[in-house]
Amino acid sequence: MRLFAAIEASASGLTAERLRLDLIASNLANAESTRTENGGPYRRKVALFSPNGARYSFRDILAREVRELPRGVRVYGIAEDRSPLRRVYSPGHPEADEEGYVTYPNVDVVTEMVDMMAATRAYEANVTAIEAAKTMAQRALELLRA
């Protein structure tokens, strides 16, 4: 097992959680956007994660053959949440349809805040794991010097 494997795994988690936090911030910023550049209301975006070996790159296949399993997580895409959009009766709104309803994004602020807390905790856990790995590496070096 390589010395820095734990740091690599946690670093991939930091990258993934950072993107997740960016998407949550975008979702919150557009929670009331009834019109995007595509013409319709904004749709909530989510990051799609997979284990680091799920794409079967040459490195992953080689690692599997020598029994070194891939570590970490990879963001393999960003998807739009296909849950239904909110319809609110507001006949005076400029975006209201002929029935007086305005279609709002499928962003629930409470859900986004819970997701933000979970992503923040996961980010903090990865930082803690990196710090622990660094401390262990430093202690190992000190033992070698003694």
Description:
The chain has a domain of 102 residues. The model has no long low-confidence stretch (mean pLDDT 87). It is α+β, with helices and mostly antiparallel strands and 146 residues long. The radius of gyration is 22 Å and the shape is elongated. The strands form two sheets. It has a two-stranded antiparallel sheet with strand order 1-2.
Task: Give a short overview.
The chain has helices at 5-29, 58-65, 109-145, and strands spanning 45-51, 73-80, 86-89, 101-104.
Q: What topology does this entry show?
A:
Layout: H1 5-29, E1 45-51, H2 58-65, E2 73-80, E3 86-89, E4 101-104, H3 109-145
Antiparallel strand pairs: 1-2, 3-4
Contiguous uncertain segments of 5+ residues: none
- Please provide the count of β strands: 4
How is the main sheet built?
2 strands, antiparallel
Distinct helical segment count: 3
Structural class: alpha+beta
Q: Roughly how much helix do the residues carry, as a percent range?
A: 40-55%
User: How large a portion of the residues is in β-strands, by DSSP E?
Assistant: 15-25%
Radius of gyration, in angstroms, nearest whole number:
22 Å
| N-end to C-end Cα span | 24 Å
How does the overall form come out from the CA principal axes? elongated
Order of helices and strands: HEHEEEH
Strand order of the largest sheet: 1-2
Summarize model confidence as the mean pLDDT: 87
Keywords:
single chain; alpha+beta; two-stranded antiparallel ribbon; 3 helices; elongated
